[in-house]
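Submission sheet (multi-component)
Chains listed below:
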Amino acid sequence: MKFSKLYAPTTKDAPKDATLPSHQYLVRGGFISQVGSGLYNFLPMGKIVFDKIKNVVKEEMDKTGAQEIQMDVVTPAELWKQSGRYDVFGKELCRFKDRKENEFVLGPTHEEVVVDIVRNRINSYKQLPLHLYQITTKFRDEARPRFGLLRGREFTMKDGYSFHEDEASMKEEFAVMEKTYTKIFTRLGLDFRAVEADSGAIGGSGSKEFMVLAQNGEDDIVVCQNCAYAANVEAAKRAPKTTAVQAPEANFGKFKTPDMKTIDDVSAFFKVDPFYSIKAVVKKAIYVDKEEVVVFFVRGDDELQETKAQNACGALDLVDASLEEVEKAGLYAGFIGPVGLENVRFYIDLELKEAKNLICGANEVDYHFVGVSMFNFKEERYKDLVSVRADDRCACCGGTLHVTKGIEVGHIFQLGQKYAKAMGATFLDKNGKAQPFYMGCYGIGVSRLVAVMIEASHDDKGCIWNTQTAPYVLDMIVSNSKDDAQNAFAEALYTKLHDEGVNVLWDDRSERFGFKMKDFELIGFPYALIVGKELEEGFVEIVERKTLDKTVVKKEDAYAKLKELLA
RNA sequence: CGGGGCGUAGCGCAGCCUGGUAGCGCACCUGGUUUGGGACCAGGGGGUCGAAGGUUCGAAUCCUUUCGCCCCGACCA
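Outcome: structure written.
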């Protein structure tokens, strides 16, 4: 490709709303252009990069025997009503009606559609397992699109769905996908971790996220310094917390604690470490048909993890409860405790089970209990509720846990029979009995990966692509476009490389040297060949984008050297 | 969804407070000089000032409504 013909509108200035490097450089480098909130066009180079990433994903998926299909972006609302997600999904689900007033949705994911595809067509266990996937457009009406391609509303995802006769087969495919995803992200040259994750509203049991470690990640991940344990904070576990501080020995009793509403107030008053107190967090849980105030109890020095809390009570959503709602539920803010608490749904963190010598609210204004022991609560009240933090201990090996930022690029789920059951999709098993399918589902954010590649690899001059994903692997810069000798040398080499199928760009524009170099650095081709004034003495230069190191080579050696670098 | 900000040329902005019919930098076009780090000189094109309504002799500027975009938070399969 000649640069003079390439539509790559590069700019010196970034759009003012671009805050992340990936967003700035992809726009400045002429890869993408914004057309609306969370909506982006891919320009020629953006499309090349996108296709390269997509091909890596496709190749690895095909190797596993998964078959590519394409489902419609527009899907009838009826399917969503069958699965029950029409009401559950919330405003992210973009709904609309056609001219005949029929209801549709823009697919944010395709479990319903794929179940409809196999329903009544796969009738026997002999036809299983089956894995269908697609790489297509999705639409989610995000509350707040941001970060360019990282959180757009329209995006491209690889989503695969597998069908199985039993749980064991489902788990096998899950393991295959974990390996496959590892291959894909390794091929793309990314620094990533597979982490334990919350399944969210999609449902199912086991789930793992693939996180690229990056400063600007949206997710917090807990990583053990000692062993392989890694998890999203939403699902992270830890070894039960302990303390060296002496427990306050006291008989059970009620004490007046005027106006002491915080853990700090109370622990200072009783001169007791917050570890030995119980913190109450009041939330309003929202269900399909009702709203309800729910109380969560954790140690005084712990924090509630909201996703865990939401899972504990099975709510669609948790929001902060207003003071008014708290009072209406018969609670006294600042003096709430599990002992004697009635008529309110509540949950207690697992680590408080059988704990002794605690202080908690007495459910009476200006009073706290001391010497509380946690014995007589029902088993189902105990749930994992705490937010794991840096320096907590690993549940697997006791090592120190650290917290780092990650960008989710892949997520694999074991869905079980949830969708097949809801939608009546069954097959006949070996005993001739109708069974709902066991399903797995596996996603990769393909368009998001375009941005992630840059988030993970850039400097203050621009993008740094690797040869696997670069729009062009080599940028040939003719320093003086009026110089016949330089042009002739460049053209000969360009033609040779081009004919051999090397993805090379020839900057033949009549711009000055510095201008072309800046574009090379901004766009971030892995290598540049500079054909300049030293050609007269028989030399050209090869520049590596990553290090910006320049190597002078004899002009007749340039071809061999480039072939070696680009191999 | 709560709080805030911004819409003036392709991009980045000034002008608005105190109304008088629009300007700067970059980009673009023509000619010339230049050619190893985003050149220089000369000339030139391009904006119904987001939209609608109102006040006024007169509105980018004041008032009302509306649309869009962005930031912080909540949210985020």
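Remark: Residues 253-383 of chain A form a domain with the YbaK protein fold (CATH 3.90.960.10).
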